[in-house]
Amino acid sequence: MGGGKIEEENWQLRKEIVRIAYERVPFYKKFYNERDFNPSMLTTPETWELVPILEKRFVRDNLEEMKDPSANPKFISYTQTGGSTGTPMRVYTDRRHLVEVQTWRAFGHWGISPADNEGIIHRRVPTTFVSKMKNRLLWWPTKRAYLNASSMSWEDVAKFVNDLKHKNIVWIQGYVGGLEMVADYMIKHNLKVDTLRMVWSTSAPLHDSVRMKMERAFGCKIMNQYGCNEMGNIAMQCPHCGDLHIEYDMAHIDIVDTKGHLLMDEEGDILLTHLRNRVAPLIKYRLGDRGVRLSRQCACGNPMPLMSPVKGRISDAVYTPSGVLITGEYLTAIFDKYALLFSQYQVKQWDDYSITVYVKAYKNDEITQAALKCIQSQLNKDTRGEMPVNIELTDYIKSNKGKIQYIISEVALKKYEVEK
User: Can you give the pLDDT at residue 3?
Assistant: First the structure.
């Protein structure tokens, strides 16, 4: 499908989902009328900017009104967001939207088949004897190895790595935190899994230092992905250029500035329009992430438009008392310089604005200490000395059910919740 054709299909799907929302969903009828918007105003793609932005608080406060009352109940399901940008919330989803189709399509570009043996690091894995037997029968003859991201001990990791080897696992999908824990174990014990051809990292931004460690441990390329619980996969990394192809016949992505104006080739807030959820549409829904849509076409021949890998969330930022902002992308770049010294880190800003940086280092030697002093000095400079910056070496950085948060700012979370 050529670029022009996919653009036209995407535009028609956008107009259709707006019409459906206005005609069938009580919330949107009221929401659009109060903001003097009507679907008939969508005459050209340029008029898309007229569609009001949907904030998370609107969804949280109007859950039942967000649903089409005439929808067949068998098509309605629900999911719950993780709450990494604030309070977790429930949203309704459309069972007819099959996330697996998007996944299999992306895998074709990586030389991976749905029939290949798979390793999974997730919080929803079979744990009882009955559920394990059902799962084995469902996927037979494909073999699967599981690691429960909700609670991972080193013994669990060791068993998982052993399963990877004995079951000839070809690819792994998993949360960044869980993958990183497995990578640490494999590096420490000098273990290899020769059958691995791809690792699919999900749930959090994949920073360069973490990618380098995973490639070293797993001995294969790491595929980055961008998605959310509200929809599933949104964009998948291209094996040729490293940027992400947006699943443009399933999702539309807008990048907007602080005034809601559309941006291209500039960083801004990510808005999602789920083109396939007709029971409870999400239209220009602010996800809480920051990203960049790219105007260039990929040389690989895939007509789906590109976005840069997502570096962080709106709440992944540090603020000083005077209002100075240090972005998450900048903070993680500081640590990327020291990928060979540190295996993991976490920046925590407390509600009194003070900062604690937890660092897990490979060694506690003079070089490591010198690097830590450089980081502390840089952060003191960036924050203009307005609040304390402390650095602590640690042997363990806790993940949230397998999801690693590199930056946690209580100040930014409160700010985001108040504004949105």
Answer: 62
Non-local (6+) Cβ contacts of 133 within 8 A are none
Q: Which residues pair with 200 in a beta bridge?
A: 173, 223
The tokens 């409870």 sit on which residue? 280
Domain spans in the chain, listed from the N-terminal domain onward: 3-97+231-313, 100-227, 317-419
To the nearest 10°, report the CA torsion of 125, 128, 130, 133. 50
Contact 234, 287 (CB under 8 A): no
User: For residue 137, which amino acid is it?
Assistant: L
CB 145 within 8 A of CB 167: yes
CATH topology for the 317-419 domain: Alpha-Beta Plaits (3.30.70)
- pTM of the shown model: 0.75
Structure tokens at 361: 């280092």
* pLDDT for residue 85: 45
CA–CA separation, 52 and 74 (whole Å): 30
> How many angstroms separate the CA atoms of 29 and 124, rounded?
36
What CA–CA distance (Å, rounded) separates 317 from 290? 11
Q: Quick one: DSSP state of residue 127?
A: -
Which residue, chain included where needed, has tokens 């009507």? 38
The one-letter amino acid code at 4 reads: G
Closest CA to 144 of 111, 123, 115: 115
Does CATH number 3.40.50.980 belong to domain 100-227?
yes
Consecutive 10-residue runs of the chain (420 residues): their mean pLDDT? 81 97 96 97 96 92 92 86 57 83 78 89 78 79 86 86 96 86 92 94 77 92 86 88 92 94 94 95 92 92 91 72 76 76 87 92 90 92 91 82 74 64
Say which CATH topology domain 3-97+231-313 has: Rossmann fold (3.40.50)
Q: CATH topology of 100-227 equal to that of 317-419?
A: no
